[in-house]
Write a structure and sequence with these properties.
It is a single chain. The protein is an alpha+beta fold. Among the domains are: 130 residues, no CATH class; 99 residues, no CATH class. Helix content is 39%, strand content 10%. It contains 14 helices and 12 strands. The strands form 5 sheets. A 3-stranded antiparallel beta sheet has the order 5-6-7. Strands 10-11-12 form a 3-stranded antiparallel beta sheet. A two-stranded antiparallel sheet has the order 1-2. Helix 3 packs across helix 8 and helix 7 runs antiparallel to helix 8. It is globular. It starts with a strand and ends with a helix.
Length: 391
């Protein structure tokens, strides 16, 4: 197998997460990542034989005699933060301030304009995404304290920061209202931009405690400037939240519904082929999706009927903006890819969704996949995180 490092284009720009990725190949005797090229027939055969043989030898991730206890229907809440104040702040900024933001964080604010169709979201939940990475996020065992990170991001004193950190349930947070006031009054425009971006990450992308920005989000955000891509963490928390709702039969989705629906519309909707403009420097898929008018009078029952009756020609398996080369499909001793989130870990098998590349689908190895999911609590999680990070 060939090994390669996968480089994310403009990793600080989250909005590019739903657009395209490019990769750089290199040889390294220490690399434990293995990749798959869907468009190369020779690689196809080799990986397919390995996958099917491994699956036959090891078996499924589920134990023999397992009986699913999942309910036939899951009621998912898509309760979101009220983003009106965030939108108003963005609207008040002049072109120079917005250009500064775009330069450091890409087209992130377009997430504010993506309308959440709760009925479509719930319907699609009851009826895969490919993985490519650059420098992934891994929760630090001995990283800076929450207060130190906030001091670095906001430029405020330790006394100011400490006085505003609150305990919210089982986690520490900083209320949005304090960051809002800081954005409006901070004398340093760059710091206002940083705090605004942190707020979008905490209120839109990882909205755990409504009206607050979670401590774990600040840890990920603090590393964006060091080349860390948020994409695997976003996938991890998306899958973890959906899994939790599915097992319980209900629950609130704690993830970025805007990005998930953007992905949905990119693959499961008949659209005209996107022209060469997707490769232009100023093109934004999020901007286009936010500006596209959509019907909001379709009931959840009608959405389910539509989705259940989708035909082959209704599905755009390979989104027109995807420019894939290779897929990271296994790491170290794992026959799949463990995804590190901000609150926990989940196992993921990218080979399950080869049809997104219009490639031949085959059975991937899944042994141990179900047992990989865990949260960042207790005494043993740090050791497990180190093992995954090393892989």
């Amino acid at each position: 197998m060939k090994c390669c490092a996968l480089t994310y284009r403009d990793s600080g720009s989250l909005s590019e997460y739903v657009r395209t990725y490019v990769f750089v190949r290199f040889s390294s005797p220490c690399s434990h990542r293995e990749t798959y090229s869907p468009e190369l027939n020779s690689d196809n055969a080799a990986v397919r034989i390995w996958a099917e043989t491994t699956q036959q030898e090891k078996g499924d991730s589920l134990t023999e005699g397992y009986v699913s206890e999942l309910l036939d229907f899951t009621r998912v809440s898509v309760t979101q933060n009220n983003l009106q104040e965030v939108k108003e702040i963005w609207a008040q900024w002049d072109d120079e301030a917005k250009r500064l933001f775009y330069c450091h964080y890409g087209y992130l604010p377009y997430l504010l304009d993506v309308k959440i169709d709760e009925r479509l979201f719930r319907a699609s939940f009851n009826i895969g995404i490919l993985l490519t990475v650059d420098r992934i996020y891994s929760k630090a065992a001995n990283g800076p304290a929450f207060s130190k990170r906030l001091m670095n991001i906001t430029g405020m004193s330790e006394q100011w920061v400490t006085a505003r950190i609150k305990q919210k349930g089982d986690c520490r947070c900083i209320p949005w209202r304090h960051l809002r006031d800081l954005i409006l009054a901070h004398p340093d425009m760059k710091k206002r931009v940083d705090v605004f971006a942190l707020s979008i990450y905490g209120l839109v992308i990882f909205p755990k405690a409504l009206g607050h920005i979670d401590e774990a989000v600040s840890d990920l955000f603090d590393r964006l400037s060091k080349g860390t891509t948020p994409m695997p963490a976003i996938l991890a928390e998306t899958f973890r939240s959906l899994n939790a709702c599915r097992r319980a039969g209900e629950g609130r989705f704690i993830g970025c519904a805007q990005l998930l629906l953007s992905w949905f519309h990119s693959h499961f909707w008949k659209v005209e082929k996107v022209s060469y403009r997707v490769f232009s420097e100023n093109y934004s898929l999020l901007k286009e999706l936010a500006a596209t008018p959509r019907r909001d009078d379709i009931t959840e029952e009608n959405w389910m009927a539509i989705l259940q009756n989708l035909q082959e020609e209704d599905v755009e398996w390979r989104a027109p903006w995807m420019v894939p080369d290779e897929i990271l499909y296994r790491c170290g001793d794992f026959d799949w890819v463990p995804l590190l989130g901000v609150w926990g870990v989940v196992g993921y098998a990218p080979l399950l969704v080869l049809r997104q590349y219009r490639s031949r689908q085959f059975t991937p190895p899944t042994y141990g996949l179900a047992q990989c999911e865990f949260v960042f609590t207790g005494n043993n999680y740090k050791r497990r995180v180190r093992e995954i990070s090393n892989a």
